[in-house]
Amino acid sequence: xxxxxxxxxxxxxxxxxxxxNILIFAIVVTGLVLLTGIVGLTSFGHAAFMGVGxxxxxxVSTRLGWSPWLGLLAGFVTTGSVAAFLGLITLxxxxxxxxLATIAWGISLFYVFGNxxxxxxxxxxxxxxxxxxxxxxxxxxxxxxxxxxxxxx
Length: 153
Fold this sequence. Notes:
Layout: H1 2-10, H2 13-39, H3 46-62, H4 68-90, H5 97-115, E1 132-133, E2 136-137, H6 145-152
Antiparallel strand pairs: 1-2
């Protein structure tokens, strides 16, 4: 744990960014492994749920002026609600229909995100406030060593 917290001080920015993205996607893949390996269901819609949470957090932080921490909680709740609603519809399917339905949900949410002007269209949202923890803030225009340790610690 201590080594991981010190890595941002020792590695260049590109490698820290790359490792951070790897950790984020590892969390997503863990959920997919639990779903496919333990439960035995196939899903191709995980990226759409990640997008629902990200857009919810960004919108409540930028448009509503909420704290980004409250935005994260709102993102969790919204993603859980959307997943529960879509799951009630989709989990009734069996065989090849379930994976096809999850692909359809993923593609449809991708196009909803990209074609909704309130969500920034294909360019996304800007001016998302930085996270602050113990007086330290996450990077807005490039990571500082302190904020990189905060993210990895």
